[in-house]
Amino acid sequence: MELYLTHHSGIRNLAKEAVKQLVSLDTTRDELTVHLERAFLVSVALPERPWVGSDPLEELRGLATTAGATVVGGLCQRRLKVNPKSYIGKGKLEELQAQAEANDAEVVIFDNDLSPGQIRNLEKATKVKVLDRSELILDIFATRARSMEARLQVELAQLEYALPRLRQMWTHLGRAAGGIGTRGPGETQLEEDRRLVDARIRDLKTRLVEVQARKEREVRSRREEHTVSLVGYTNAGKSTLMNALTGAGVYVEDKLFSTLDTRTRKWHIKDWGRVLLSDTVGFIRDLPHHLVASFKATLEEARQARLLLHVVDASNEQAEDQIKSVNAVLKELGCGDKSTLLVLNKVDRVSEPSFVQVLQSKHPRSVAVSGATRVGLVELQEAVMEMLSADFANALIETDAGNGKVLSYLAAHAEIYRQEFRDNGVAVYCYLPRQLLHHIQGPTVNVRFLP
User: Fold this and answer.
1) Model confidence over 261-300: pLDDT tens digits?
2) Element spanning 72, H or E
3) What is the β-pairing status of strands 446-449 and 23-26?
4) Which of 115, 257, 382, 415 gets the highest tally of CB atoms within 10 A of its CB?
5) 86/92 Cα distance (integer angstroms)
6) At 182, is the pLDDT very low, low, confident or very high (cuts 50, 70, 90)?
7) Is 80 helix (H, G, I), strand (E, B) or coil?
8) Alpha-carbon distance 385 to 415, whole Å?
9) What does each C-alpha distance from 285 to 51, 67, 144, 323, 329 come to in angstroms?
């Protein structure tokens, strides 16, 4: 994928090196394709980052497959602290060398974040390309980006990830004398590339500020609507659930990060009315910070929604850990205190019903459903209506009978259950969303809240 200025071939090559050449642009079809590579997986458990689930490599295997690799093997190690040179221990490194060679691996992928020096030492030892978890996720996002907005966001995240690693890309060049090992052809090229990367990052941030401002205006224009956003761990079934609720027919694929773009559809709830339902990008454990920062514009729907539906794959034995991971990202986005309903999805795949009961006991504000079989959708609608109703105020609004603007607004946005015409005007008894009360303020309008 071309990440830099099109007139500078050197920086394009640097970009390809920065993302380890997993991504290539097929110009005949104008879409991103991924070369299938033989991948060997490594996962290291640390006291502050223990393994999740019975298979430490399960999620990494799914990420590698999504990126287009063929997994040929893997190994795991528990450590109290990382080896500063190679992350794993000396004996494990020798085992990794032997297994990577025996399995004819083309790339070694770590389920951990590595420093540039560790990557260089591991590549030297194994004689194959080495990727860490963040770089793999960035690569997947690059292959999934379809809209211009998503491509800008992914490119920014990739450049911010690659910038501190540029020095390692030029260590093959000799250095001339001068300074304490800081000058020479490599350093000159490094300075030039850093300037170009910095300039590109500034340009992308400027463009994304404009995108975010436009997105905020678009979301604000729907403030008078009831807005609900689907959030959750990647591959939790959000798109399938959205199709079941709205009949939208959005793209569904049993892969991680099947889409990066937010989709909004109308959801008509019986005895309630219209709700705007948005499907957002899925989250994952240890999601790279650069991606969270870059995708804030895309996640604006979730930030401004009145209600979040946190969709969980109830059939996954790691469901509780995935809930915690999503909550951590929501907190980083400033949505930690937003009204949220937990949706335990895929109950049709749960072999032991007691597992769902345990989840519901831990999370009382939850509902069990299946987007695929449509089980529990009525209960979900009722729960959504109840939570949205909590934001309504029972109000008595008095105004002049000739105030057509206020009366028409109430007719469109409030649930009127009584109306009285008096000598000095009209009294309207209604339920109205609290956030819309400012629309009916004025010198001839009197608002009183009722019990």
Assistant:
1) 778 899 998 877 888 999 888 888 887 777 777 676 667 7
2) strand 70-78
3) unpaired
4) 257
5) 10
6) very low
7) coil
8) 14
9) 11, 17, 18, 10, 9
> Side by side, which strands form the sheet with 273-279?
263-269, 273-279, 227-232, 307-313, 340-345, 366-368
Report DSSP state, residue 356.
Answer: H
Single-letter amino acid, residue 314: A
Number of other CB atoms surrounding residue 267 within 10 Å:
21
Q: Of 444, 391, 434, 395, nearest to 416 (Cα)?
A: 395
Q: If residue 119 lies in a helix (H) or strand (E), which one and from where to where?
A: helix 116-126
Per-residue tokens: 55? 């298979």
If DSSP codes are grouped into helix, strand and coil, which group holds residue 307?
Answer: strand
For residue 349 the two structure tokens come to: 């795949």
Q: Say if CB 264 and CB 301 are below 8 A apart.
A: yes
Report whether 54 contacts 317 (CB < 8 A): yes
Q: Tens digits of per-residue pLDDT, 293-342?
A: 767 666 777 888 889 999 999 999 899 999 999 999 888 888 888 889 99
How far from 35 is each of 26, 32, 132, 139, 150, CA to CA, in Å? 11, 10, 18, 12, 21
Identity of the amino acid at 436: L
Element (H, E) at 398: strand 392-399
**Unique residue bearing structure tokens 């995935």:** 322
Tokens standing for residue 354: 């007691």
The residues near 86 (Cβ < 8 Å, ≥ 6 apart) are 93, 118, 121, 122, 125
Exposure string of 36-60, with b = 16+ CB inside 10 Å and e = fewer, is ebbbbbbbbbeeeeebbeeebbbbb
Query: Which amino acid type is present at position 360?
Result: Q
59: tokens are: 């999620």
Greater model confidence, 88 or 296: 88
**Contact (CB, 8 A) for 129 and 108:** yes
User: Six-digit token pair at 77?
Assistant: 């190690």
Indicate the pTM of the whole model: 0.73
Query: 4 is written with which tokens?
Result: 């830099």
Measure the CA–CA gap between 299 and 281, rounded to whole angstroms: 8
Dihedral sign (CA 29, 30, 35, 41): negative
Q: Which DSSP state fits 262?
A: -
Joined tokens for residue 63: 């990420």
Give the pLDDT confidence of 206-216 residue by residue, as tens digits: 998 888 788 77
How would you class 235 by CB atoms within 10 Å of its CB: exposed for 0-12, middle for 13-18, buried for 19 or more? buried
Looking up tokens 């304490």, which residue turns up? 180
Are 367 and 341 in contact by the 8 Å Cβ rule? The answer is yes
Question: Is 135 strand, coil or helix?
Answer: helix
**What is Dmax (Cα atoms) for the chain?**
96
Q: Torsion angle of alpha carbons 357, 363, 366, 368, nearest 10°?
A: -20
Tell me the backbone φ, ψ of residue 120, rounded to 5 degrees: -60, -45
